[in-house]
Amino acid sequence: MPIKIPARLPAREILEKENIFMMDNEQASLQEIRPLNIVILNLMPEKQKTEGHLLRLLGNSPLQVDITFLKTVTYEPKNESKSHMEDFYTSFSEIKHRKFDGMIITGAPIEHFQFEKVQYWKEMTEIMDWAKDHVTSSLHICWGAQAALYHHYGIDKFPLEEKCSGIFEHQIFNGHGDIKLLRGFDDEFIAPHSRHTNVSIDEIKAAPDLELLATSKEAGPFLMMSKDGKHIMATGHLEYDTVTLKEEYERDLERGLSVKLPVHYFPNNNPHEKPLNRWRSHAHLLFSNWLNYYVYQETPYEWK
Prior knowledge:
The chain has one domain: Rossmann fold (3-Layer(aba) Sandwich). The chain starts with a strand and ends in an 8-residue tail after the last helix. The protein is globular, with a radius of gyration of 18 Å. Helices cover 31% and strands 26% of the residues. Strands 1, 2, 3, 4, 5, 6, 7, 8, 9, 10, 11 and 12 form a 12-stranded mixed beta sheet that branches. By secondary structure, it is of the alpha/beta class. InterPro entries: Class_I_gatase-like, HST_MetA, MetA_family.
């Protein structure tokens, strides 16, 4: 089944070249099927790249998926054109009367701020509280995961001495391979991370409503979820493209920042050699398992 996105969305051309099956509203209306309605709160600075990352994974599913992109009104992004935001994004006030089968909240480059100091934090908490009754399951990524842990469970982030950037090995925690979210996962797998903060593994293990699913000896807790499946948190970026960490590293150098090479990423630790994508299969597994077991299998056919 296809993913349904606006016909003029720039990411569409890239995904078409990759043979991701897509359709427009007119085509979708001819199918006698209720699509899964997914709302994406995209807080990443390069909106169009993130759109491509997520749509690629959401489109690799036997389910028809209808996407709504959500923007903040209390903060206007500096790295995206106003016309793109007006054409393809909507505000919370325009969709809060609706119910969605799934929601994705992305990361954001604002980790150095306390949550309450983030310009759109009040708006963010309103959306997260709204989702409790209006969304079947939410997937939170990187800073979005830390925000969910803080808002819903009181688990705060803490700063790292240096940026956690690279490709890290992870292990399924405490025999949780039988958890539906991890079906098909290897006992050990790799995933990208890119952040300046972390969360306490002990606090997550002590939270009665949370399940810790996967951890990394180097990068810390990676996957966790609420026991009812409504909140799934990933502190890393399985959705990243092959070159995303390279682009972030080069961007930081251009800004004059003192940054180290992403670890376990460039062949021979040489930034001039092309990195290999060794996490793609688990990225598809995570998103397809979430869509199937925590969204499709749990959502009502008709919301009341």
